[in-house]
Amino acid sequence: MDLNLRDIRAFIAVAQTGSFTRAASRLHLSQPALTVQIRRLEETVGVRLFDRNSRNVALTPTGRELLPLLQKSLHDMEHVLIDARALGDGSSGTVRIACLPTFAASVLPELIQQVKAAVPRAGFHVRDAVAGVVETLVRHEEVDIGLTGGELSDAEIDVLYAGADQLVAVLPAGHAFARRKRVSLTDLASVPLVLTAQGTSVRAVVDGAFTSGGCAPEIACEPTYMMTAVAMVRAGLGVTILPASAREVRAEPELRVRPIDHDAFLRPIALIKKRGRTLPPITQTFVAMLLERLAPG
Amino acid sequence: MDLNLRDIRAFIAVAQTGSFTRAASRLHLSQPALTVQIRRLEETVGVRLFDRNSRNVALTPTGRELLPLLQKSLHDMEHVLIDARALGDGSSGTVRIACLPTFAASVLPELIQQVKAAVPRAGFHVRDAVAGVVETLVRHEEVDIGLTGGELSDAEIDVLYAGADQLVAVLPAGHAFARRKRVSLTDLASVPLVLTAQGTSVRAVVDGAFTSGGCAPEIACEPTYMMTAVAMVRAGLGVTILPASAREVRAEPELRVRPIDHDAFLRPIALIKKRGRTLPPITQTFVAMLLERLAPG
DNA sequence: CGATCTTACGGGATTCGTAAACATA
DNA sequence: TATGTTTACGAATCCCGTAAGATCG
């Protein structure tokens, strides 16, 4: 009673070749086996599909009517299978990722280009969000992986990679710190600072470092976006503290970047996924290439 | 390597119920068998479709992407099967028939109404043509059955029914013959006749009858269409000879119909199909109902 | 009589169900 | 521990190929 794709393929082959023998050889099948398949199909459908004698094979009117319908159905089905196989071997698919704006503007675009060059049919769905939101998106499975900051140990989250991003001081070319190789915590406590808003992972690290160091920063400005912070620094409003990878400070001739001489100025970063969830093959290769960048070798 | 509809149904059932056990009972299958089906499907596609542990079953991103595609393909395929079954049991389909204009305007419309009442989803493809063309259409399989006139014995044609149509004289109410019950061959030879054109089956019979009777008709007019012949008769141009079933003469108060007292004035009619061709089930029931009318009992 | 479809039958692969093992909340 | 999935295995079924039979041109 169950319709079988093989029987449909047999029907189409016989209809196209007009012969059981030729169709059988096309299907790499013995001719009697083909007879049985056609008969079975005719029985399940309850209608004679071919008028045949030992000399000629011809579609019945019903068969002629059914042929294009079955051809289309079979074609669609096979196309879905091809699509599915492409998803399965990672030659197509969509990488769904949430990441911090810093990465969304720095490593991620370059990596996407790299992946697209290797896998032309790869698609991307990128969300940029602050650390807490990234984690939520992963937990709710709105994305498959997240590149986020902050330490997290959650039973529902797998950490595929944990590392840290060096924080650096960003200052105008004419600033007093520009003549030094490095700056210290007390240096930073002595000048006005432009710090990103509460709730960002960078701000959490900076606040923690000052607290444990026993001193308080002088906050000149609390912008939400890094781009704003950079503009404020360029305008001489103060010094800001950003991840070394921040795209915003590159190719800015009026700015200087100096490492901070303090162990606490490391922003932890993590590549995460939901525990127990299989990543799509395309995403697995994406992760592999991302890890190659984050931790080469 | 062959995609199986059963596995697709299994995939959809598990995706919808979120449980192997519930899906198995819906599919009337043991639960282990379902596990095997899903694993087989995952192997043929080459991708994990469900993330599952002993407690939870959830679609992978790839599975979620594939689900609607496979649902649609399966639905289409099953719909085609339903259509095919409907064709197979005669509850739908198209009756392709060619017939003489006489029948196309008389028995056929009534029969079509009758069949449509019995089989609402029946469709019709009707060609009206003179006898020779009807036979050609059947031979070329442009129609499945033909209702035609004339005797034919052809190896390629099966005669499903053979009968004859009485020919009658049609004349104006004021004509001299109107006072008689019947007319004879010599009567017809004595008055101007309106005869349908050469090539029609009626004309062939009339010509044959006059020839064998040893007399010649006086032809006043040779219209192609019966409707024209009737109009000519109504105008007093002469008497015409038509099949008794001709629709054109019914409900014409100014005309009279008289039987012709001569055995040769019978037009043979035949219901034919191409030899070796199976008729669609809907057409078989149509034929049965037609025969019931042509030869009741 | 020759080419082609159909039927018959034995072997092999597929698939099912039962039972036991395994895993996780 | 209890629920639910996976593994193992024997039995039934399905399906193919070979060989013999039937049929039409």
Mind sketching the topology for me?
The structure is a homodimer of 297-residue chains.
Chain A: H1 5-17, H2 20-26, H3 31-45, E1 50-52, E2 57-59, H4 61-88, E3 93-99, H5 101-104, H6 107-118, E4 122-128, H7 131-139, E5 145-149, E6 157-172, H8 185-189, E7 192-194, H9 201-213, E8 218-221, H10 226-234, E9 239-243, E10 255-259, E11 266-274, H11 281-294
Helix pairs in contact in A: 1-2, 1-3, 1-4, 2-3
The structure holds a DNA duplex (25 and 25 nucleotides).
Structural overview:
The structure is a homodimer of 297-residue chains. Chain A is of the alpha/beta class. The first copy, chain A, has 3 domains: 5-89, Orthogonal Bundle (Arc Repressor Mutant, subunit A), CATH 1.10.10.10; 92-163 and 268-294, D-Maltodextrin-Binding Protein, domain 2, CATH 3.40.190.10; 164-266, Periplasmic binding protein-like II (D-Maltodextrin-Binding Protein, domain 2, 3-Layer(aba) Sandwich), CATH 3.40.190. Chain A contains 11 helices and 11 strands. Chain A has helices at residues 5-17, 20-26, 31-45, 61-88, 101-104, 107-118, 131-139, 185-189, 201-213, 226-234, 281-294; strands at 50-52, 57-59, 93-99, 122-128, 145-149, 157-172, 192-194, 218-221, 239-243, 255-259, 266-274. In chain A, the strands form 2 sheets. In chain A, strands 3, 4, 5, 6, 7, 8, 9, 10 and 11 form a 9-stranded mixed β-sheet that branches. A two-stranded antiparallel sheet of chain A has the order 1-2. In chain A, helix 1 packs across helix 3 and helix 1 (5-17) packs across helix 4 (61-88). The radius of gyration of chain A is 32 Å and the shape is rod-shaped. Chains A and B meet through helix 4 and strand 3 of A and helix 4 and strand 3 of B. Chain A binds a DNA duplex (25 and 25 nucleotides) through helix 3.
